[in-house]
């Protein structure tokens, strides 16, 4: 489990779900790398936005980095987790609440690869991000369904967007990555909405999930019954800012997750949410809100 600044309390939740377990270990202090052989997925509290750190087999990948003001927090969090460089960053979609913090990240760490959906976004924030990537000299990889990567012994399958034709909406073109570590599966799919969720639900990667990052911050346009029935998550994490103007997560989405029997964690209520998967056990640690 990770170690954080002394003012943060690391609380472990015992999750009474299949193939899950935990231990109690509040451990403030210096940076610590993940346990050998584990997959650690950290859902960083970036406010109203996405930011997920994946660590496996000595490799580190960052999926999204929140808005620009979240950049310093993301950099500090990565350092607290022992990150010295990034093997890759994934832009799930080009909106500001996903890419704004990347300029600070690119300034603080060497980044080997940048994975994009190929959906263009002509905003000043996105153009500034692309210039920072060019200055970094990272390899840019267009990532569509069917692409498979080995992330330090964890398989990373891109399962959205479609390889041949993008959807009309940016959110539905979010890069969806399914992580498989032993028998554990984690799905990270940015702001995917109904069309993308239907596409993934009709694909060949359906089946129970250990962890789902709830798509589009818990919007009512996502987490459809078809999607939840197709993937059956045990644990769900909602990346959402406190008192946000969008009303995320919506009561309808929370009700669907409850009916599906999912254990829900939220950045606005639990701070950073760190899931460590080691063998058949999934431990969840949070930094506030026991």
What does this entry look like structurally?
This protein has 290 residues and is α/β, with parallel strands linked by helices. It has one domain: Metallo-beta-lactamase, Chain A. 21% of the residues lie in helices and 27% in strands. It has 8 helices and 16 strands. The strands form 2 sheets. The chain has a 9-stranded mixed beta sheet with strand order 1-16-15-2-3-4-5-6-7, with no helix packed on it. Mean pLDDT is 90; it is low at 1-27.
Do you know the CATH topology? Metallo-beta-lactamase, Chain A
The CATH superfamily label reads Ribonuclease Z/Hydroxyacylglutathione hydrolase-like
Number of domains: 1
**What is the tally of helical segments?**
8
Main CATH class: Alpha Beta
Q: State the CATH architecture.
A: 4-Layer Sandwich
Write the element-wise H/E pattern from the N-terminal end onward.
EEEEHEHHEHEEEEEHEHEHEHEE
The backbone outline, from C-alpha atoms, is globular
Q: Overall pLDDT, averaged?
A: 90
Radius of gyration: 17 Å
Stretches with pLDDT under 50, minimum 5 residues: 1-27
Sheet bearing the most strands, described? Answer: 9 strands, mixed
Percent strand: 25-35%
Main β-sheet, spatial strand arrangement? 1-16-15-2-3-4-5-6-7
Helix content bin:
10-25%
Structural class, by secondary structure, is alpha/beta
Termini separation comes to 16 Å
Strands, helices and their partners?
Elements: E1 11-13, E2 39-43, E3 52-56, E4 59-63, H1 71-80, E5 88-90, H2 96-99, H3 102-108, E6 113-116, H4 124-136, E7 139-142, E8 148-151, E9 154-160, E10 176-181, E11 184-188, H5 194-201, E12 209-213, H6 225-231, E13 233-238, H7 251-259, E14 263-266, H8 267-270, E15 273-278, E16 281-286
Parallel strand pairs: 4-5, 5-6, 6-7, 11-12, 12-13, 13-14
Antiparallel strand pairs: 1-16, 2-3, 2-15, 3-4, 8-9, 9-10, 10-11, 15-16
Helix pairs in contact: 1-3, 3-4, 5-6
């Amino acid at each position: 489990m990770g170690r954080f600044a002394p003012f943060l309390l690391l609380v472990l939740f015992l999750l009474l779900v299949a193939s899950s377990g935990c231990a109690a270990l509040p451990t403030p202090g210096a940076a610590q790398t993940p346990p050998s052989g584990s997959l650690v997925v950290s859902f960083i509290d970036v406010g109203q936005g996405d930011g997920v750190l994946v660590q496996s087999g000595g490799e580190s990948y960052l999926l999204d980095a929140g808005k620009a003001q979240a950049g310093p927090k993301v950099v500090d969090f990565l350092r607290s987790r022992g990150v010295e460089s990034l093997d890759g960053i994934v832009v799930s979609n080009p909106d500001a609440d996903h890419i704004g913090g990347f300029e600070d990240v690119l300034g603080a760490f060497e980044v080997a690869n940048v994975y994009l959906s190929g959906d263009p976004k002509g905003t000043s924030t996105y153009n500034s991000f692309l210039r920072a990537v060019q200055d970094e000299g990272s390899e840019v990889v267009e990532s569509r369904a069917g692409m498979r990567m080995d992330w330090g012994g964890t398989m990373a399958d891109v399962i959205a967007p479609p390889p041949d034709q993008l959807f009309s909406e940016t959110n539905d073109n979010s890069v969806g990555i399914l992580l498989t570590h032993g028998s554990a599966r984690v799905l990270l799919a940015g702001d995917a909405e109904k069309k993308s969720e239907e596409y993934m639900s009709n694909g060949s990667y359906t089946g129970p999930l250990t962890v789902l990052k709830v798509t589009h911050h818990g919007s009512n346009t996502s987490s459809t019954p078809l999607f939840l029935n197709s993937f059956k998550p045990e644990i769900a994490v909602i990346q959402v800012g406190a008192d946000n103007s969008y009303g995320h997560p919506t009561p309808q989405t929370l009700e669907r997750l409850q009916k599906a029997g999912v254990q829900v964690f939220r950045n606005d209520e639990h701070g950073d949410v760190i899931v460590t998967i080691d063998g058949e056990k999934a431990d969840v640690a949070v930094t506030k809100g026991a």
